[in-house]
Amino acid sequence: MKQSVVSAAQIQQGIRALGLSRRPLCVHSSLRSFGWLQNGAATVIETLLGEGCTIMVPSFTSHFDVPAPAGRRLDRNGEDDADLPANTQIPNFYTTDSTLLDDDMGVLPRAILATPGRWRGQHPHDSFSAIGPLAAELIRDQRPLRVYAPFEALARFDGWVVLMGVGLNRMTLIHYAEQRAGRELFRRWSRDRRGEIIESQVGGCSEGFERLRGALAPLERITMVGESHWRAYPVVGFVDLAARTIRENPTITHCDDEYCQRCNDAILGGPLGVDTFD
Predict the structure, then answer these.
(1) How many domains does the structure of the chain reveal?
(2) pLDDT in tens, 79-90
(3) Three-class SS state of 74
(4) Domain that holds residue 169
(5) How many angstroms separate the Cα of 144 from the Cα of each of 98, 147, 195, 198, 271?
(6) Contacts (Cβ under 8 Å, ≥6 apart) of 216
(7) DSSP strand E in the chain: where?
(8) Beta bridge partners of 231
(9) What is the pLDDT of residues 97-122, one digit of tens each?
(10) Which of 13, 10, 15 is closest to 39 using CA atoms?
(11) 278 located within any domain
(12) CA 275 → CA 145, 146, 148, distances in Å?
């Protein structure tokens, strides 16, 4: 079956249909969902920037993870021994100049990181990256223990999250809603420039997040771009609604695996004995 060809004009039409021109956007995407996209990720980036949007994407990497230091293995921290890095002699430390990404991050974040003028957050595991007129404002406050500061900034600028051909299970904003619902975020560790081990906040399992769709439907905008089903949600209003839904029904976020350590620990409230300052 021949795939449809998606052009910059169709992407522009999709953004305008959602009413998102000139807004900052956190984008989660599967470019494969479009069909055949002319010039790939560059077309998405150039078109959104041409519409006056700022593009923010997750740019997560586990490359710099190290095991917890002695005495810092936390209870209810969403991990088991299989999750822990085996190499305790990792020499690298993270910098915002890094272009390393986990393989499952996708094409668009990789392209954003390769674009001159982009900003990347100061978080060694769950950084966000952005390009566009508000990139610095969205990214500059991210720190190891302020992982979702970019969403706080996105809310201040009346930003939206756009799911391009992916589901709520790829929507990092829901982890911020979990935190707002009272769940402590999980902790991971890495080295800084001095070789000292530092603690960072990270999100948990997201495979059950599509269960929230019914509750979030009143905020949802939908359009099609080629073969790609787009959903968009405003940050303002979304986080409060999602957090309230999670507080009222904590198990709603659980994935299909009843033994999922991250889901089970999150529902119990997250790790115990964590640092709460940066």
Answers:
(1) 1
(2) 864 455 555 455
(3) coil
(4) 5-267
(5) 16, 6, 15, 8, 16
(6) 168, 233, 238, 241, 242, 245
(7) 5-6, 24-29, 36-37, 54-58, 65-66, 119-120, 128-131, 160-164, 186-191, 197-202, 221-225, 228-234
(8) 163, 222
(9) 999 999 999 999 999 999 999 999 99
(10) 10
(11) no
(12) 8, 12, 16
